[in-house]
Amino acid sequence: MRVKIREEEDRFLAYFIDSRRMVGVNENGANILDAFFNQNKSVEMITKEQSKKHSISPPQANEDLKEFLGQIQKEIFPGGFNIVEQESLNSPLGVELNLTISCNLRCKHCFQASYAETFISGEQVIDIVDILASNDVFEVSIIGGEPFLHPNLFDILKRCEKHEMAMNLVTNGTFLDEKTIDKLANINRLVLIVSLDGLKETHDYIRGAGVFDKVDTALRGLIDKNATVEIIHTLNSVNLPKYKQIIDYCEELDLPCNFSLF
């Protein structure tokens, strides 16, 4: 497991990329986490360093270290979501990148006034990603429109991967053919967030005829390739009475289900 650490005015923020959890620590805690998780130093090695640095006995340093790492373990693998205090930070913890307003669907609840084929250039997005990485932004959510319509999407994902950024990619799922799924499954720290607004009749009514079957096939293909995938279910007046159906569907596929309220 890797941890990315950045300094704020009064503390250090340690972001565990793979579990997507963050803890606040002091400078010494930051050094310990960097040594243990990034430099692969053993508990014994860090104990010796801490004992010498703080002029305490090795047994006391070892006890303190194990207590600290045990608490960190609880923080990064909690039973639920961790809560980040609202405060003024040097830079955002995460950002959304809206690559395009272009979309191949016309969902009934969509608020977009235009679906023009307008894209931020791939070069510009990559420059933005580089700037975000240099300012220790931990997460990037890629949205649209439909991001898979952007001609340089995989170049952008690869750039985020190079910077060890956690990525969310929000999609309607209609472009996830077998070849695309194979490519996505090989990108580290990427979560596919796929829109699903109901079972076949409901989803097709909201998003268009035949869309549910495409999404269902894509989800099962992603699962088969061990890609990390979640469902986003947009609640509206049409599907609200049927929300339990989507919970049952997600339980069947063993997928997390997120709800968005319009």
- Structural class comes to alpha/beta
Helix content: 40-55%
What low-confidence regions span 5 or more consecutive residues with pLDDT below 50? none
Radius of gyration: 22 Å
Give the overall pLDDT as a whole number: 93
Widest beta sheet: strand line-up? 4-5-6-7-8-9
Instruction: Say how many strands there are.
Output: 9
Helix count, DSSP H or I runs of 4 or more residues? 9
**Cα separation of the termini:** 37 Å
Q: Beta fraction of the residues?
A: 15-25%
Largest beta-sheet characterization: 6 strands, parallel
What is the string of helix and strand elements?
EEEHHHEHEHEHEHHEHE
The general outline is elongated
Could you give the topology of this structure?
Elements: E1 3-7, E2 12-16, E3 21-25, H1 27-38, H2 43-54, H3 58-76, E4 94-98, H4 122-134, E5 139-143, H5 153-162, E6 166-171, H6 178-185, E7 190-195, H7 200-207, H8 211-224, E8 228-235, H9 243-253, E9 257-261
Parallel strand pairs: 4-5, 5-6, 6-7, 7-8, 8-9
Antiparallel strand pairs: 1-2, 2-3
Helix pairs in contact: 2-3, 4-5
